[in-house]
Design brief:
The complex is a heterodimer of chains A (206) and B (204). Chain A is an alpha+beta fold and 206 residues long. Chain A folds into two domains: 38 residues, no CATH class; 163 residues, no CATH class. In chain A, 54% of the residues lie in helices and 17% in strands. In chain A, the strands form three sheets. A three-stranded antiparallel sheet of chain A has the order 1-2-8, with no helix packed on it. Chain A has a three-stranded antiparallel sheet with strand order 6-5-7. A two-stranded antiparallel sheet of chain A has the order 3-4. In chain A, helix 1 runs antiparallel to helix 3, helix 1 packs antiparallel against helix 6 and helix 3 runs antiparallel to helix 4. The radius of gyration of chain A is 21 Å and the shape is elongated. With 204 residues, chain B is an alpha+beta fold. Chain B is 54% helix and 13% strand. In chain B, the strands form three sheets. A four-stranded antiparallel sheet of chain B has the order 6-5-8-7. Chain B has a two-stranded antiparallel ribbon with strand order 1-2. The two termini of chain B are 13 Å apart. Classes of the chains: A alpha+beta (206), B alpha+beta (204).
């Protein structure tokens, strides 16, 4: 058996042998973790989607997220504005968590994946490629834009009976960012990116 | 007894945690993945100790996170302190009960479920054995997947604090429950990441 056809489950370490097949998703027969997902290689599609997501992310940070009209005044907030208010209240731990999870980490993650896909188009296999890949993988769980959008929805509902709430361009851009990056991640499967085994099925080695 | 499953580690193979490339161990020196350059370990280093330390820290902060107010609403003639739970009660009796259920799930159920299940996973892994291995594996994946959503309330408070600053009419300020709660979420996420699910299969 060729070494290329052997892989290990990242959840339970079982050694698995892989055979080429047309099945779309493969689960570990021992612990049921998803081991490989066979997605056709369309890195240029993924790049286009991530670039579009990048544009939306910039818009989401430039324009207001929500505004309230109450007592004759209109108050609006942006993502940065929310972080500044927290800092002004001496809630620095919360300010740092919010700015990291909704602004800094998503930006770095997006930059990494865009650069990565551009380098991959040039067939540049270098340490830069793997460095960008590792940074992105480490940051992914800490990018929380979609949770922030759900939080905005809850905040809007809570304010509904106090003031008139107006949705800003920022929140629509965030919504578009989430949809586009989800679509892009679906096309760009990180494991498939590295793996030369495209459509495997496997069995446990005994 | 069925024949034991062969693991990558038992055959001297490292599995890259980033790109899943298998590499053969050749000597005692530190190893790096040939494909992506990540550090290689057979198992996450000090997995159980780190998980326990982070769980203890999270458990200590769990009380202030739930008991201290996360925000204070100041309006003409009255102040109202809201904890995580009282905020949910207000949402339930007021504008939207479906959202109240959602917030209750991610802010109350998920953090406590995470603390209890991770402790259970650490204890059962430390003791070893085959008890409900498949269920424990699924439990770990569920915790790892859902944990980040608990950050929801932190974002809600951030937006409310930033928006409701109507001088002389109403204003909302963050309370010390907010940093405690944010810390619990971050610590439990790190705890879940530090736990190595392969250990429970090793010790089965
Ligand atoms: Zn497995
Ligand atoms: Zn690697």
């Amino acid at each position: 058996m060729k070494p290329l056809h052997i892989l290990a489950c990242h959840q339970c370490d079982a050694l698995l042998s892989a055979a080429r097949d047309r099945s779309a998703v493969f689960y570990c027969p021992r612990c049921n973790a998803t081991v490989l997902r066979a997605v056709p290689k369309r890195l240029d599609h993924a790049l286009a989607l991530f670039l579009a997501a990048g544009v939306c992310f910039v818009l989401a940070n430039v324009f207001p997220i929500v505004a309230i009209e109450a007592a004759g005044a209109t108050v609006y907030t942006t993502l940065i504005g929310a972080v500044q208010s927290l800092h002004a209240e001496s809630m620095n731990i919360v300010a740092v968590v919010v700015v990291l999870t909704t602004l800094v980490i998503p930006s770095i993650e997006l930059l990494c994946v865009i650069l990565l896909l551009m380098l991959a188009q040039l067939n540049h296999s270098s340490w830069a490629l793997s460095f960008l890949f590792r940074v992105r993988e480490a940051l992914r769980p800490w990018s929380m834009v979609e949770i922030f959008v759900l939080g905005s929805l809850v905040a809007i509902v809570k304010l509904g009976n106090i003031a008139n709430v107006v949705l800003g361009i920022g929140i629509w851009s965030m919504g578009a960012f989430i949809i586009l990056s989800a679509a892009a991640s679906h096309v760009f499967d990180p494991l498939e990116f590295w793996s030369e085994i495209k459509v495997p099925t496997t069995r446990l080695l005994k | 007894m069925t024949k034991a499953v062969i693991t990558a580690a038992s055959r001297g193979f490292y599995v890259c945690q980033v790109c899943e490339q298998l590499s053969q161990r050749v000597s005692e020196v530190a190893h790096y993945c040939v494909r992506c350059g990540a550090n290689l370990h057979f198992r996450k280093p000090q997995s159980l100790q780190r998980t326990v330390a982070l769980l203890v820290a999270a458990t200590i902060l769990y009380a202030p996170a739930n008991l201290l107010p996360i925000m204070r609403t100041t309006s003409v003639g009255y102040d109202q302190d809201d904890t995580i739970l009282s905020g949910i009660v207000t949402l339930w009796s007021g504008p939207s009960w479906p959202l109240a259920i959602l917030v209750f799930f991610v802010s109350i159920i998920v953090p406590s479920f995470k603390l209890i299940s991770l402790s259970l996973l650490v204890i059962s892994t430390h003791r070893g054995g085959k008890w409900r291995l498949q269920e424990r594996a699924a439990l770990y994946r569920a915790i790892d997947f859902i944990g980040r959503w608990s950050m929801l309330d932190v974002f809600v408070v951030s937006l409310l604090v930033s928006l409701v600053q109507l001088r002389g009419v109403a204003s909302i300020h963050a309370g010390f429950g907010a940093p405690a709660f944010a810390s619990v979420v971050v610590l439990t996420m790190y705890a879940a990441q530090s736990f190595d699910p392969r250990l429970m299969w090793d010790r089965a």
